[in-house]
Amino acid sequence: MNIKGILRSTVVKLxxxxxxxxxxxxxLFLVENTITDFAANGxxxxxxxxxxxxxxxxxxxxQLGIMCAEMANAFEDGMxxxxxxxxxxxxxxxxxxxxxDKTVGDDTLTEAAAKNSAFYMITRPGGNVxxxxxxxxGYPLAVYDEETxxxxxxxxxxxxxxxxxxxxxxxxxxxxxLLVRFTDAQAAPIKAEWETQRTQITGxxxxxxxxxxxxxxxxxxxxxVTGRKPExxxxxxxxxxxxxxxxxxxxxxxxxxxxGGLNLALMGELLNGxxxxxxxxxxxxxxxxxxxxxxxELTLSLVRVIKNRSFVxxxxxxxxxxxxxxxxxxxxxxxxxxxxxxxxMLFRDYKTRNVVLxxxxxxxxxAFLAAVFGGVGGSxxxxxxxxxxxxxxxxxxxxxxxxxxxxxxxxxxxxxxxxGFKLTDMPEGVFAEMAEDINSLGDGMQAALQxxxxxxxxxxxxxxxxxxxxxxxxxxxxxxxxxxxxxDLTPEEANDYARIIHxxxxxLKNLTSDLFDISKVQSGAEQIISERxxxxxxxxxxxxxxDKAVQESGLTVKAAIPERELPIWADGRKLSRVLENLIGxxxxxxxxxxxxxxxxxxxxxQAIIELKNTANYEMDFAAxxxxxxxxxxxxxxxTEGSGLGLAIAKSYTEACGGTFEVSVDGDQFKVRIxxxxxxxxxx
Length: 683
Known about the structure:
The protein folds into four domains: about 5-40 and about 195-315, no CATH class; about 55-180, no CATH class; about 345-415, no CATH class; about 525-675, Heat Shock Protein 90 (2-Layer Sandwich), CATH 3.30.565.10. It is built from 18 helices and 14 strands. The protein has helices at about 5, 10-40, 60-75, 80-85, 110-115, 155-160, 185-225, 245-270, 280-305, 310-315, 315-345, 350-415, 430-485, 490-525, 535-545, 545-555, 570-590, 645-655, and strands spanning about 95-100, 100-105, 120-125, 130, 145, 150, 175-180, 530-535, 555-560, 565-570, 595-605, 605-615, 660-665, 670-675. The protein has a five-stranded antiparallel beta sheet. Helix 2 (about 10-40) packs antiparallel against helix 9 (about 280-305), helix 8 packs antiparallel against helix 9 and helix 17 (about 570-590) runs antiparallel to helix 18 (about 645-655). The relative contact order is 0.05.
C-alpha cells in the first residue's frame, strides 16, 4: 500500500480522531486542574497575572494604590492612627499619611526615602501622583462633586481660587501627603512567589498550547482525508451524513453548549468556593470531552457532505429560499406577460382606449349609484342616473381625447422640424399645461438651434482669426530672415530687420502665452489664491503701472477713486492682470485725445470698478460677443492685439468670484467689475 492509501486507511483516521480528542482532553484537564488548585488556596493569593516582568505586576500596583486610597478614606472618616494600624497589620510595605494635623503610619518615612525604594507612590491633592509603577488604584485624595458627578483634585487654595463648591466633602488641606513604598527586602518574598507561580502557570499553558497545536494538525489532516478511501477518489458517506444540515448544526450546538455550560457552571462554583464540588471535576471534563468528540464527528460529517456536493440538497433552508426565488421569478414573468397582452389588446388604438375608458367610468358610476340609491328609488332610478352620467362622461371624454390628439399632432410636427408651430385654444386643465410646455419646448429648441448656429459661426471665426494672428507675424519673420540671408545689408539695416523679427517673435510669444492662460482658466486648471485686497489700492497701482503707455497714447485718465479702503476677497495677481488688460485695451482702441474714466465705488454691498472710453472705430458688435476668444472690436485686425484680452479678464474675474459686464452705447465702451465687499457677504 502506498502513502496515500496509508493516510486514507480507517485505522489512521481513527488514530487521528482519538489523538484530537485526547489532546483536547489533556489540555482541558491541565488548565482546569491548575485553576482549581489556585481556587482552593484563594484567588486573592494569586500574585502572578500574566505580566512579563515582576516590576509590572498588578499585585504591586494594586497594593500601592489601595493603601493610598485606604489612608484617604481613613482621613475622611475621622479614623485615628491606632485604629488604622490595627486594621492594616498585614500590609508588607511602609506607609505614611498626613492631612492637616492628622497622621497615620510611619512619620519618619520621607519622600526621598520612598523614591529610593523598589516600588513607591506619592500622592497629593490636585491629581498629583508620582509613582514608578504604570498604574494605580482608585482616586486617592479625590473630592466628589454631586452636582457635576465628577471628582475634583483641589486643595483649599485651589478651590477658593476656582470657586469650587462641594456638597459632600471639603477640599483637602495644602499639606496633605500620602506615601507608600516597598523596599527590595519587602518585595523579595512576593517576587519569589510571583516567579514560582509564573513558572507553574506558563508551563501549564505551554503544554496546553502544544496539545492544541497537535490537535489542529490532526484536524486539518482529517479535513482532507475524511470521506476518502484508498481504492478510489469518490466521497463515501456514512449514516450520520444523511442528517439534514440544520439538524447537524442544531445537534452540534445543543450537545457542545450543554456540556460546556455544565462545565462552566461547575468551574464557577469551584472558583466561588461556596460548595466543595471538586469531586465532580473529572466527570464534567469527561462529559465535555465526549460532547466534543460527538461535535467533531458532526463537523467531519458536514465536511463530507460539502465534498460530495450535496450540501444544498441536504440544507432545507437553502432549498426553501431557492424555491421561493424560482416561484417569485415565475410569478413576475407571468404578471409581466399578462400585463403586456392586456396593454396590447386594450390600448392598440384610440378607439379601443376610448371604449375601455367609457366602460370603466360607466361601471364605476353605476356601482356607486346602486350602493347609494338602490334602496330609495329602485333599479329604474339607478339606471336613469347611470345613463345621464354615461352621456356626460362620454361628452367630456371625447373632448379630452380631441385635446390629446392635438397634442400628439403638435409633437409630430415638432419632430418633423416645424419649431414655429404653436398650440392655441386648448381646454383648461392638464391639456392647457401640456400645450404650454410643448410651446416652451419649441421655443427652447429654436433657441438651442440658434445657439448651435452661433457656436459654429464663432468656431469658424475662431479658426480664421487664429490663423490670421499666427500667420501675419510668422510671414514677417520668414520674409525678413530671408532678406537677411540674401541681401548685402548695412549693419544699420540688418539691425532694423533683426529688431522687426524680434518684435514679431515677441508678438507670437504673447499670443501663445495668452492662449495658454485662457485655456488654463477656462478648463479649471488655473490655481486661484484668494486674499484680502483693497479695490482702491489695486486700481491706483494699475494706473501707475500703465502711466507711461497712457501718456504716449495721448489719452487723459479721469480717476474717481476714494481714499478710504474698500476690501474685497480675490487673487491679487489675477485681478492685476485683469486691470492691466482693460487699461491696455483703452490704449489700443480709445480715440486719441479723448478721456478715459476709471472709478471705484460701493453699490449695494458690491465693490464696483468701472472703466469707460470712446472707441476709435465703429462698434458694430454685440456686447456678449466681444468677450469671446479671438473676438476683436477692430474687425480689420490692424492692431497688435490677440483678441484674448477681454476673454482673459472675464475668465479671471469670474474665477475669483466676481462679475464682469461689458456694455456698448454708441461710441462709448464700458466695463464693470463687481466683487462683494469683504466682511459684508460671505467670502
